[in-house]
Amino acid sequence: MKRQWTKHRQFNPRPDGEQRWDRAYQYLLQWTKETESGISTKSGSPSNLIQEVDHASSSLCESFHKTSS
Asked: pTM value?
């Protein structure tokens, strides 16, 4: 007999959640600033950023699957 499994997701607020999100956001801003300054000093200007590689022939698709109920 095959079992039918279900997943349940729950929002669990944490007392330090807002501080954790704020700290993560500050780290992200700092990392972005460091990355941009490194690129601009190496290439001369931020307009010389490298274009992302196109993966149109890959087997992955850009979609979300319907969540199980």
From this structure: 0.39
